[in-house]
Amino acid sequence: MLPEKALADELIHAYFTRVNCGWPIVEEEDFMAKYNARDPNNPLTLTLLHAILLVGAHVLSPQLQNASELKATFFSRAKMLFDARFEPGRTMHLQVALLMTWYSDGAEDVMANSWEWVGHAARIALGLGMHLDSTSSNLSPGYKRAWVRLWWVLVQFDVLVSVAHGRPQAINLDDSDVPTLTCVHLGGIPNAQTDFVVQHTRLCIIISRATKQRGFLRSSPHANMEAIKQVDKALAAFATNLPDQMRLSLSNVDVWQSTLHLSYNNFLILLHRAPQNNANPQSSESLNDVEICRDSAMTVTLIAEGMRANDLLSSLWLSSINALFTATLQVSIELDSSNPVVASKSLRRFDSLLLCLRDLSRDWLYALSILRLFENRTKGQPQHQVTL
Prior knowledge:
Keywords: DNA-binding, Nucleus, Transcription, Transcription regulation, Zinc
GO molecular function: DNA binding; zinc ion binding
Distance between the termini: 40 Å
Number of strands: 0
Radius of gyration: 21 Å
InterPro entries: Amide_Lactam_Regulators (IPR052073), XnlR_reg_dom (IPR007219)
Largest sheet: none
Strand content: under 5%
Shape: globular
Protein name: Xylanolytic transcriptional activator regulatory domain-containing protein
């Protein structure tokens, strides 16, 4: 069963205008042509339709009284169809797996976990040979374009959920020779956020290579330090060469610009935060790390505040919630600073981040679990209580 057409139209419109333009998973023109024609000889796939309705209900949740019920219904239907392989088409199943990451992501909800769904998508893509350059293949031009686009969306999701969960990536970019993503591959997607798609893909490639290089189990401390320096150079060059549309503007809040900078600053904190066994916390390198982490946490806080003030938090995906988690953890450490000025500024940021997490917790179990963790941090410390 499908929802009433008016509701379905609203949810589909929300998906394509607020999600697919930046995470181009579905070719909008092809999907909408089938949706509007209702041709029994060329029907929509129900699995993909329910997954799109799920994401549409998620981003419209502040306006929908029964958003939770709708999301649960669309998720269960899409999952049932996905598990049963009710409809053929491995590319479609890859798209559905990526879309399912918008549903409840909590520590106990393993089967609905984003890392699990991205793993499904990665295995489908690798099984199809999507990691290989299809330029000289017999695929139609439309399929070639779609495969490049989907491959790089998958790479981004794989990198971001692996960082969020602290788990290995499913994709090794050294095994791939897919062409670089360009605006050419975004045909069929009106209003595509081309600058975001291209630049965020570049950023995730840097993060992917950096995490694998720095995370090598037998790396010496010196090798890790050299790896961090190389990553810093790559990140600095990335930030310097951003197009004007993707440079952070706190006065004119934009979802995709904000998402890019949340990912960027999240990784900066993860890259530079002090290890638990830091033998020399007063070294120049350690002091630089502290400054980088503090500045990045402040940037994440300002972005989140701007998005909350403009009612845009529901447009964020899982990785941006992880950025808030990383920033809140950093700020919570600064609450214990012996310097009262640092502690006071950190308290304001801490309170602000918890307010954003509380808003996000209505739609994300992941945000709710983070919120509970840090609310426990404030128990027994009246001066840190959050005013809601």
